[in-house]
Amino acid sequence: MALIEVEGLSRSFKVRGRPDVVAVRDLDLSVEAGEMVGYIGPNGAGKSTTIKMLTGILVPTSGRIRVAGVDPSRRRTDLARRIGVVFGQRTTLWWDLPLQDSFALLQKVYRVDPARHRANLAEFVELLGLGDLLPVPVRQLSLGQRMRGDIAAALLHDPELVYLDEPTIGLDVVSKGRLREFLRTLNAERGTTLLLTTHDLQDIEALCRRVVVIDHGTAVYDGTLAGLHAQGGSTRTLVVDLVDERAPIEVPGATVRRVEGPRQWLSFPADASAAPVVAAVVAAYAVADLSVQEPDIEDVIRELYSR
Ligand SMILES: Nc1ncnc2c1ncn2[C@@H]1O[C@H](COP(=O)(O)OP(=O)(O)OP(=O)(O)O)[C@@H](O)[C@H]1O
């Protein structure tokens, strides 16, 4: 049996003076143990509502959910011992307490075996670089430090399934990289199942072989990221700063979209390598600088619909 099984799931909200808002509509989803799935969609698509139903905080209007074989809203407390939740935008740590006190409290809350707690804590402190931060009150931590603390907190009770809602939001490139590396290790070494919502396509690229796109509460795509790019025909952009102003340059495999002084923007398929395009530009023109821009999730989804 799959770890997450959702069939015909719907949830609407009553709003005064307006028709009901249908946040999730007839959603089917099945996730096997050990998968890392990216759950993406535009703002208001229904991602948070789905995750709240999966954790049991919200009761569905209709449909069926099983997480680890149980109905989350009926068995919320039991399930809490088996899942972890990380919200990028808010902390589950105690704001005024040193980080280490939050960890100690969580051991009591989840009644984690003390030896197991010590072993997990030692491992996460090491992998997430939390050593110096343990005595620091959470409110004094930077966003990236707090995020690492939150991730450790969500994992101390050995959950087999972890929901991560925008875990890299607001982090710098180095912190994002470290966090992705940590999540990859967690999945590879412990087999922890991860369901990740994000607006950062690079999170998906680094972590998720499978992407589920939700829009208006319904899954509109379920497959690989490469497949999503191919289906949406999405493009990456090569920004070229030429030494001189020129008419649009000619480069095999790429198309000039915009010219502004010596700068030109070329688009090429997102699933193709940038290397041959860069090589062709450099071989034929005098170039001062180059950079590649990735499409963002909203672009990819927009392109999925414009087909
Ligand atoms: N408690 C509520 N009452 C009324 N409407 C709600 C409530 N919660 C969510 N909604 C509506 O349901 C829809 C889906 O919201 P949800 O928060 O699940 O989207 P999301 O995909 O998580 O969006 P974002 O990426 O912006 O976080 C939105 O139209 C939202 O306004």
UniProtKB/TrEMBL annotation:
Pfam family, one: ABC_tran
Biological process per Gene Ontology, one example term: response to antibiotic
Membrane-related topology note: Peripheral membrane protein
Alphabetized PROSITE patterns for the sequence: ABC_TRANSPORTER_2
Keyword entries, A-Z: Antibiotic resistance, ATP-binding, Nucleotide-binding, Transport
Main localization category: membrane
One GO CC term, this protein: plasma membrane
ATP-binding listed as a keyword: yes
Compartment(s): Cell membrane
GO molecular function, one term: ATP binding
Domain ABC transporter: start-end pairs: 4-241
PANTHER family: ABC TRANSPORTER ATP-BINDING PROTEIN, ABC-TRANSPORT PROTEIN, ATP-BINDING COMPONENT
Name of the featured protein: ATP-binding cassette domain-containing protein
Organism field: Nocardioides anomalus
